[in-house]
Write a structure and sequence with these properties.
Structural class of chain B: alpha/beta
Helix content of chain C: 25-40%
Shape of chain C: globular
CATH topology of the largest domain in chain C: Rossmann fold
Chains: A alpha/beta (about 180), B alpha/beta (about 600), C alpha/beta (about 650)
Distance between the termini of chain B: 49 Å
Strand order of the largest sheet of chain B: 10-9-13-11-12
Radius of gyration of chain C: 28 Å
Oligomer: heterotrimer
Number of strands of chain C: 28
Number of helices of chain B: 24
Number of strands of chain B: 17
CATH architecture of the largest domain in chain C: 3-Layer(aba) Sandwich
Strand content of chain B: 5-15%
Shape of chain B: globular
Number of domains of chain C: 4
Largest sheet of chain B: 5 strands, mixed
CATH class of the largest domain in chain C: Alpha Beta
Structural class of chain C: alpha/beta
Number of helices of chain C: 20
Chain lengths: ~180, ~600, ~650
């Protein structure tokens, strides 16, 4: 029987959740016996398989149109989607930008900083994605498993992945359910 | 923040302005400045106050509620001197009793039976002798002279009189509970907060026949054992407040209120307390909190006001109309009273017919009359010959009943079973050009604004529902909205603290039940079948009907219509704000909504 | 008693209990947010809804009284969906970001409620609309983003503290917490008692100084008693790594109902005076460090070189009974020093002891203040000097409690009441005379007497007219009427209280004034300069009079925790442990011995007052007895009614 395929990606996050994932240390070897790790920011592949994966994991919230595209693509290509960490589940720290608005944030970052001279301008290359109101992943695509935490502990991540690997829906509760 | 001790509203109705209201206002400001009152008295523009033709230019002075009419620049000075310096009203310029027989209350139609509204417009509410002349206070005399409190309660129980405020609780039973409560002193409170939009039955009674209410309260106080009563009247009814105060003063003069009423040894006095603009203060425990000077928030029951009400003492609260029924029942007898109405609900009910009926205004009918009779026989059917779509009963907490319910006899139980409520008597008739989703949104907007904010389900839940309805009306609805709305509605009803929250979802639930197709059209097709929701409609001009008269173009507030004289005009849908003015002014029915 | 069934289990509760009480007694639980055991139940969050058979709607268990034969179910589909709904509504309303909140991970009731319901995300995303953060107050921060509008803070501020600074503005979804008429907290009528912060279930109100320094579980909790004023409120001292972090009220406290005032809660944490770290001696006009042994030997030499009448010894009322007792034994009993006094000017405790010796026990505990139908306050300003007692008065004043208040300066303690009469002055003899007249119903010549005091007869009649018929009169006595020159009036009013069945509560000034009085101390009203002046200042303050007396003395010994003008002029300076570095007892206003436990290990080089006295005693060939408890307890019983 083939091992379930797992892919992940990060959106508007700090990569801390993936670092926490790596914090499971040597258990990652055990995990790779149970699952087939496909595209992740820490492996070499760039996109979740077109033929689909079993479990998709997203760290970080949705803060621009590119994030939306990545989230939608992941949702299309996976059976079970996991929102990993407070940013993916709640919007997290990046969502603080909503209090001021994307425009004000961009102005502050590119024009009003103390080290900018008169020529400061907000980048407007058409290739760049558009910043939008920051949202949790579940506001854009359906999420099946929420694993909050900033970051969720390695134990929690290991538990969720090993449950999914064995065909069970994990119960995120008790010490695995931390909203901070 | 400046604190004014007085506010003067100056009517800026165009007719008043024609008659010199601007000069009057300038003079007023000048006079106030001369007496150094500018920091104490605020002068504000107001829409019409009294009838501009017969009373303008007129002003309304708060907090007294004094209405001065037919003013000129010469009369302003004496008013400022008398009212603001000497602190008393200048009688010669005050408005007298309004002619209450106006478009609000016409002559009774055939099927009406007027008990509560009987004397309005026929007696002078500021003259107690008029009321006495129509057998007023006979009931009180009988009660104090010949009946014991228990007999009074039994009579009201036997009459099957039900609370007219909306819940329909048997009044006799309510009085019995208050009588049995061991604590003293006891209070009698009249709920005159009438907050339902479009309902003005209570106002009419207070303005036109205040003594009927006072007499009812006094009889009830005797039955219950209370010696002090309060009428809690909303501040938006200054004339009612003023009429009540006059009536109370006169009743005292005539020994019908105060100490040793009619020599019986029974003491009872009444004070008027005013609301301050909150619909939620029509809820009885919030009303009591407001009288106590606290924030107008409901309290959890039990304990009920009958055992712990005002200041923790036994309190009986009834609606204006409930009290007004009492003297009639006592004076004219049980047989007469119980001959009217249905099996479970005896007597009559006033309704405020509004909306798309031919004859709007107040009516009074016995319980058990069908909606069809009320709307068609008495209301004259739908205006403009359009089709009936729905009738909303009971105000913002009521449901919308469709055509299939037209033969429903109007009764507390039947309306409740059909998904609506009796409420205080509001009845809004809607024709085919009404969008039911928009109606639900409209009522939810009202409830959201008026929610007191104490409990989570109502405060936040109604906001969530409103947001969803607004999105749907703006064409941004998604399929998940429907089950979410149902879930929110049922939770809010189940979890809210008071009747406002428990009833707030009713318009949504009833419209979703009877008009689900409209919701679905908004969500799936981004279409408003009734052509009301602005984001979902466009206006266009039919080329074959347009004569190029340019009337529409000239009246368009955003200049969205272009066209040469005698040429077909075109509406630019990008600029058009869908206000509908062009359709109104077109004499050729050339403007259509898509 | 009431019998009912919870989840199939029968349980019996006292009449007046709520359904929630019965649920918890039966061993079950329902989540709550707006409920708090010290506050009148409000029933607004609706999280505690339970199913009661036969009831039309779900019932809020925190508020609805338990009824006989009620059948209650706490975990049905309806109640579970209600809880999830309520929580999802709360999270959708404002910005409840846990990741950077001071209250996260154990200190937030909202977060815990979400965990208990098994929530892993917000079912409805909020609008991320920003709400105002009010950081204008020196002691705490209000973050409206985290407020769940439970109003525990408002209710505490009004119902318990009687201050009513916090309130709500607007209605419905626009409701928002405000101070006064919507002014910044730092500019409001807030008295910085900090009780609102304690009652807040989320991170909406947080303590500034201790924020982000540790969760409750990271901190060491030490139960203690406050020694600022003489009330002796119970409190919990919280430390981390031997550093004082925060002081909170104790939910299990007695008379002070878990409340504290700004003096007890914030003053100690805001302390920023410089510590005295080593004993010092003055050589050539400069203070130089020396060893403890050298310092104490030098002091001992001074004692031996002088006649005992030339020694003047003074100690701070912030010192525990152990220190006061040792100090008195050393200087008065053994040395018969010229003057042995307690710092401060409040004679109330001494007056009480003197009077009780004459007429027997007469005082009631402070709790008598909480429920009265008329309060007569003579010679004290509770709002300044005994704030928590002031809370008890203010919250009754809100219900128009009849109050007669006499003080040399106007106090605001009765301002809420429309049945209050103020006398600003010092003629207590005349005041007591007027009170006696009212109490006896002897109203002849009343107008004259009232005019003499500047009181309006109509108002006096309104407030005091029914004094002789009062069921629960309470008389509060303080430092002004307790002055020696007013003793006759003091005595008369207590005797009058006995006649009319009024309870007497005497507020005794600072810290351990009561204990000191019982140990025989005189108050330092006439501190005298002397050849040798020993000032055991500890972590307290002393007045200008004491400073002048010290300045006029030849050999000045100051044991103090902090550098000050007193240490600057001393000949010998000894470091001293501060209140949380020592253990000791304080006689509270109820006449009970409260224990201040040690919470901090003092830095090397600090000694407490008793430790110093022990060494000094040794050097003089004395042993201090260390027995004070029985004597003190007996003496208390002679004054305070049990």
């Amino acid at each position: 029987m083939t091992k379930p395929k797992v892919a992940s990606d990060w959106l508007a996050g700090c990569a801390g959740c993936h670092m926490s994932f790596l914090d499971m240390d040597e258990r990652i070897i055990e995990l790779t016996k149970l699952v087939d790790l496909r595209a992740t920011p820490i492996t070499d592949l760039k996109e979740p398989d077109k033929s689909g994966v079993d479990v998709g994991i997203l760290e970080g919230g949705i803060s621009n149109t590119y994030n939306e595209e990545v989230a939608i693509k992941m949702r299309e290509r996976c059976k079970i989607l996991v929102a990993l960490g407070d940013c993916a589940v709640f919007g997290g720290v990046p969502a603080m930008r909503n209090f001021a608005g994307a425009d004000a944030a961009l102005k502050r970052a590119y024009i009003e900083t103390e080290s900018t001279d008169d020529s400061g301008m907000i980048p407007n290359d058409p290739e760049l994605s558009t910043p939008i109101h920051v949202r949790p992943v579940s506001d854009v695509v359906k999420v099946d498993v929420f694993l909050p935490g900033c970051a969720p502990s390695a134990d929690a991540i290991f538990y969720v992945l090993s449950e999914l690997a064995q065909g069970r829906m994990p119960k995120v509760e008790g010490e695995f359910n931390n909203w901070h | 923040m400046a604190y004014y001790r007085s506010t003067v509203l100056v009517s800026m109705d165009p007719v008043c302005i024609d008659k010199g209201a601007l000069d009057v206002k300038e003079q007023l400001i000048r006079e106030l400045a001369i007496y150094n009152l500018s920091e104490e008295v605020q002068v504000l523009d107001s829409p019409r106050i009294g009838d501009p033709e017969s009373e303008g230019p007129d002003i309304l002075v708060y907090p007294e509620g004094s209405h001065y009419i037919q003013l000129t620049t010469a009369t302003v000075g004496p008013i400022v001197m008398e009212h603001f310096i000497k602190g008393r009203e200048l009688q010669q310029y005050k408005a007298q009793m309004r002619d209450v027989m106006d478009e609000e209350l016409g002559e009774p139609k055939d099927k009406e039976i007027r008990i509560i509204l009987e004397h309005i417009g026929k007696i002078d509410p500021r003259n107690i002798e008029d009321y006495i002349a129509v057998d007023g206070y006979q009931a009180l005399a009988k009660v104090l002279g010949e009946m014991t409190p228990d007999q009074v309660i039994q009579t009201i129980l036997d009459s099957k009189l039900r609370g007219r405020g909306g819940a329909g609780f048997p009044t006799g039973l309510k009085w019995k509970f208050a009588r049995q409560a061991p604590d003293t002193p006891k209070y009698m409170v009249c709920n005159a907060d009438e907050g339902d939009p479009g309902a003005f039955m209570n106002r009419k009674v207070l303005e036109g026949d205040p003594h009927s209410v006072l007499e009812g309260m006094t009889i009830g106080a005797y039955a219950v054992g209370a010696n002090q009563g309060y009428v809690y009247c909303r501040a938006e009814y200054p004339i009612a407040v003023s009429t009540l105060n006059t009536a109370i003063e006169q009743a005292r003069e005539y020994g019908l209120l105060g100490k040793d009423i009619l020599g019986s040894g029974f003491d009872f006095d009444i004070e008027v307390r005013m609301g301050a603009g909150a619909f939620v203060c029509g809820e009885e425990t919030a009303l009591l909190a407001s009288i106590e000077g606290a924030r107008g928030e409901p309290r959890v029951r039990p304990p009920f006001p009958a055992s712990k009400g005002l200041w923790g003492k036994p309190t009986n609260i009834n609606n204006v109309e409930t009290y007004a029924n009492v003297p009639k029942i006592i004076h004219r007898g049980l047989e007469w009273y119980t001959s009217m109405g249905s099996e479970k609900s005896k007597g009559t009910k006033t309704f405020a017919l509004a909306g798309d009926v031919a004859h709007t205004g107040l009516i009074e009918v016995p319980f058990g009359m069908t909606l069809r009779e009320i709307i068609y026989d008495i209301g004259g059917g739908i205006k403009g010959g359009k089709a009936f779509k729905a009738v909303q009963t009971g105000g913002p907490m009521g449901g919308c009943l469709p055509v299939s319910n037209l033969d429903l006899p109007v009764d507390y139980e039947t309306l409740g079973a059909a998904g609506s409520i009796m409420g205080s008597g509001g009845m809004i008739v809607m024709d085919e050009e009404t969008c039911m989703v928009d109606i639900a949104r409209f009522f939810m907007e009202f409830t959201q604004d008026e929610s007191c904010g104490k409990c989570v389900p109502c405060r936040v839940g109604t906001r969530r529902i409103l947001e969803i309805l607004e999105r749907i009306c703006a064409g941004k609805g998604v399929p998940e909205d429907l089950p979410l709305l149902r879930q929110l509605c049922s939770e809010i009803i189940q979890d809210s603290l008071c009747g406002l929250g428990q009833g707030a979802p009713n318009p949504v639930i009833s419209t979703m039940k009877h008009f689900l197709d409209e919701y679905e059209a908004h969500i799936y097709e981004k279409r408003c079948p009734a052509k009301v929701c602005r984001s979902l409609i466009t206006f266009s001009i039919l080329p074959d009907k347009c004569t190029g008269c340019t009337v529409c173009a000239r009246n368009c507030p955003v200049a969205a219509i272009t066209g040469e004289r005698k040429q077909t005009h075109v509406i630019n849908t990008d600029i058009c704000i869908r206000c509908g003015i062009c359709k109104q002014v077109c004499n050729f029915d050339a403007v259509v909504i898509n | 008693m009431i019998q009912l069934t919870i989840n199939g289990q029968p349980v019996e509760v006292e009449t007046g209990s709520t359904i929630l009480d019965a649920v918890r007694k039966a061993g079950f639980n329902v989540p709550t947010l707006c409920y708090h055991p010290k506050l009148v139940s409000y029933g607004s969050c609706r999280l505690c809804l339970v199913e009661v058979e036969g009831a039309r709607t779900l019932q809020p268990s925190c508020v609805v009284p338990a009824g006989n034969n009620m059948v209650v179910h706490t975990d049905t589909d309806k109640t579970k969906s209600a809880r999830k709904f309520i929580l999802s509504m709360i999270f959708s309303e404002r910005n409840h970001f846990c990741m950077y909140c001071q209250d996260t991970d154990g200190d937030c009731d909202l977060q815990q409620a979400a965990y208990d319901e098994g929530m892993t995300h917000w079912p409805i995303t909020p609008a991320y609309k920003p709400f105002m953060v009010d950081a204008s107050h020196p002691d705490f921060i209000l973050d409206n983003n985290r407020c769940i509008l439970c109003r525990r803070c408002v209710r505490a501020c009004t119902e318990l503290v009687g201050n009513a600074t916090l309130g709500f503005e607007e209605r419905g979804s626009g409701s928002i917490l405000i101070a006064d008429n919507n002014v910044p907290l730092g500019e409001s009528t807030c008295i910085s008692c900090g009780n609102c912060v304690q009652f807040c279930p989320t991170g909406a109100l947080i303590d500034r100084r201790s924020a982000y320094q540790g969760r409750e579980t990271d901190l060491t909790h030490v139960n203690s008693v406050c020694m600022d004023c003489s009330l002796g409120c119970e409190r919990v001292v919280k430390t981390r790594d031997n550093r004082l972090v925060r002081i909170d009220g104790n939910l299990d406290s007695g008379f002070n109902e878990s409340l504290l005032c700004s003096d007890g809660r914030y003053k100690p944490v805001a302390e920023n005076r410089k510590r005295v770290t080593t004993p010092m001696v003055r050589r050539n006009g400069q203070l130089e460090p020396i060893s403890w042994d050298e310092a104490l030997s030098a002091i001992s030499v001074q004692f031996k070189a002088h006649d005992s009448s030339e020694i003047s010894a003074h100690i701070s009322p912030r010192q525990p009974v152990e220190a006061l007792s040792a100090f008195h034994e050393f200087f008065a009993d053994h040395f018969h020093a010229g003057q042995v006094a307690l710092l401060g000017h409040d004679q109330t405790a001494i007056a009480c002891a003197k009077l009780a010796a004459e007429i027997g026990a007469f005082e009631s505990g402070i709790s008598a203040l909480k429920d009265c139908d008329i309060a007569i306050v003579l010679g004290t300003d509770m709002v300044k000097d005994h704030q928590v007692a002031g809370f008890f008065m203010k919250r009754q004043a809100m219900h128009d409690l009849k109050m007669f208040i006499a003080n040399s300066t106007r106090t605001t303690v009765g301002d809420w009441s429309s049945n209050k009469l103020d006398y600003v002055g010092t003629d207590y003899t005349a005041v007591v005379d007027v009170l006696r007249s009212f109490a006896k119903g002897e109203t002849a010549n009343m107008t004259e007497k009232l005019q003499h005091l500047g009181l309006k007869p109509v108002r006096a009649e309104k407030v005091l007219g029914q004094l002789h018929e009062s069921q629960k009169p309470v008389i509060v006595l303080g430092k002004e009427i307790a002055r020696a020159e007013n003793y006759a009036a003091f005595r008369d009013i207590v005797l009058l209280a006995r006649e009319i069945g009024a309870k007497v509560v005497a507020l005794k000034g600072k810290g351990n004034n009561f204990g000191a009085a019982l140990l025989g101390y005189e108050m330092d009203a006439q501190a005298k300069s002397a050849p040798v002046f020993f000032l055991a200042l500890g972590d307290g303050h002393a007045c200008d009079h004491t400073r002048d007396a010290l300045a006029g003395s030849e050999f000045k010994i100051v044991q103090a925790s902090y550098a000050s003008e007193f240490t600057e002029m001393a000949d010998i300076v000894l470091p001293c442990t501060i209140w949380d570095e020592q253990v000791g007892h304080y006689l509270t206003s109820e006449g009970k011995l409260g224990l201040n436990q040690q919470a901090i290990q003092a830095a090397e080089g600090n000694k407490s007052v008793p430790e110093v006295l022990k060494v000094l005693a040794g050097k003089s060939g004395l042993t201090l007895s260390e027995t004070w408890r029985t004597a003190v307890e007996e003496k208390v019983a002679a004054i305070v009614l049990s």
